[in-house]
Amino acid sequence: MISTRRFAVAAIVASLAGFSALPARADGIVTIAPPSADAPASGASLETAVLAGGCFWGIQAVYQHVKGVTNAVSGYAGGTVKNPDYETVSSGTSGHAESVKITFDPRIVSYGKILQIFFSVAHNPTTLDRQGPDEGTQYRSEIFPQSEAQATIARDYIAQLDASHAFKYPIVTKIGTVGTPFYPAESYHQDYATLHPYAPYIVFNDAPKIANLKKTFPGLWRDKPVTVAAAGGVGG
Question: Which of 91, 164, 200, 226 could make an S-S bridge to 14, C-beta 3.0–4.6 Å?
């Protein structure tokens, strides 16, 4: 069962705000520079990235609108329990973070650009174990690199952003262990924002992120999201 807390909090806030589309962060859209060192072209047709930054509904929805992304799957990473379920992760006892596995074509969108989107519109990297109405270690900001090269790029990019004072507060995003297992979430979590665009939580928390993506990265914007269902499932 999906946590009722998400809906209760979002419904109250959204009703008070008249369902207005607020920025993804209180300080508005953040324009940040791309990584000074990006991943070189590997020749591979597809690569993957695993990112955690709050509720996976919003992270998934953002990347489903990015050109070059062929699939974005909601799931869990970074914990100690094999094959965790939503209730276990939501309890905060398994150590997992709600995450999204992004499959992308590096010839169209680079890993560095994936990270630039992550830090600028997909979530707030300066709030510890919290995004919007959601609190707990399962909502932490963390990058789970799929290679040593990704780990280096992510680590250097965080240092670059902090050194340039891109944000008012220090970045709290963690860098996980290379090759950390990723477990797809239950089917009812997949494509949630697309299937439930008028749910109060989506309207207030996630629709603004999608709008910010379109405004900030027009060259990478795709109107029709690539869904898990269209991509052939969680393994597509």
Answer: 200
